[in-house]
Give the backbone structure.
Amino acid sequence: MEELSMVALSGCIWLQAFVVTMETNSFTYLQIILIWGNLVAFYVINLIVSAVPTLQMYTIMFRLCGQPSYWLTMALIATVGMGPVMALRCFKTFYQPSAIDILQQNEQTNECTQTPRNLEPAFKSARINLTNLLTGCAEAQVLITSLCFQILRRPQDHT
């Protein structure tokens, strides 16, 4: 049972590293070290804990890491888990690109000569989406506040 738990936990750590990598728009060396260092630290810590004979995890990671099925399972978890994330990102980029998506696409196609006028529709769309979101939040806040005042003003029933 401990082996199954460790496989599931390892899969979550691998998937987290890939999702964070995919969702990051630009990288610095520090970000790369922290994202993938998390994965390395997970294995180092678990291998150290697996080496202590008095703990319940004794030799679990050594046995798991020595099995090809463990590594195939990690690849399968990462692949299957990243499918929906990548599909959602592709649909979002294709149907409703943000200003960053447009700039990155222009960089990839070597169209770095964009003027602010060419990017204005994307910024306008982003501005409209943000305005609609904030307006919706403000309307919801007003509605909730008015409901609270109505509840507080209601006469108490004394039965």
Summary: The CA atoms of residues 7 and 70 lie 7 Å apart. The first helix runs from residue 2 to 23. The radius of gyration is 25 Å. The mean pLDDT is 79.
